[in-house]
Request: fold
Amino acid sequence: MDFRKLIKENRGTIVDVRTPMEFSAGNAAGSINIPLQELESRKEELKSLSQPLILCCASGGRSGQATQFLKQQGIECCNGGSWLDVNYFQTQTV
Reply:
């Protein structure tokens, strides 16, 4: 699943898994913040979001962990890597 194609087609939900402090310092337009350590307790909320989820963080490490965990929970998702990359790609598709 290619996150660039999903963004271009305006599909899914962008979920930033960084801490609230990191998120408040800058984030991809339209993204929501659900920190990595809260994924387990917020599974039902994540399942209710428009899927597939495009997961991002600072570098792609935490979003990679989140992708692996959420796929095991049956949630359709992909790793978008850095929020800066996701944000940049959003500006190219407008």
The mean pLDDT is 94. The domain at 3-93 is CATH 3.40.250.10 (Oxidized Rhodanese; domain 1). The first strand starts at residue 13 and ends at 16.
